[in-house]
Amino acid sequence: MTVERLFMAIARTIDWRLLVTPDEADQLLRTAFTKLGLDPTGAPGEISGASKTQWLKNRWAATVTASVRPHPVGSTVALRVEMSAGTKHYAVATDIANELGDDVFDDRGLSAVLNRLSRSSKFFGAMELKNIRHYLTATETVVEIGQGTWGRNQGIIVLTDERLFFFDKAMVGATIEEFPLTAITSVAVQKRLGGEALAITVSGNLSTIGGMMHGQGDSIARAFRDVKANLAPAGGQTTILQPHSDADELEKLAALRDRGILTDAEFDAKKADILNRM
Known about the structure:
The chain has 278 residues and is an alpha+beta fold. The protein is 31% helix and 34% strand.
């Protein structure tokens, strides 16, 4: 996710990873654009569209582009939403994502992590969990999630194989504080009567995320040490943990085949790729 401040406009770019080929992603995106009245144009893999101001939804007119690229799992999409005013960029992205369908997306470990998350954390972090897909980079995978507070903000703490970040999605805008894993020197758990806190040290500076349920801080700290141990020394190659489940990926591919998005031959080829790397 990147933000560009242009003259009289703000553009936000969102990175998605899909379980379909670039050609299939292009077709699905054009269908979604059409259903949403964005009137798609452009060459294969480069889709452009525009929406009018929608006063009932409090949305300004938007210019939307989608760049599709191949990826070992399927494809990536760089979705760019530009508005002359307002903060509804992610609402536009959510509408497009809803048209594509959840089973098209590589959830990048989210399903397994959410299964471990408590019911109360899912409730208090519902807004953030609903929008987290838009805030991940195209290359990262989610390893662990907790729920807590940063200053006066309540949100979720997300550990990926690239960074640790705090995310608070408000009705207007969002708060993100992030720490690249390579910059973190330590993550310590502070036990408190009402829960736990994470003490994060970066370049000698201490930051604390509090208000976490008992056990969540420990889980993130342990997962952080595991991921950090798999990072190569500076200048070398980095080995990334792959916490997502191959079984989950097969289920998603089967769903795409059942919907007619993948042919039997395409499904068998992708299934063989997954089984070969297990």
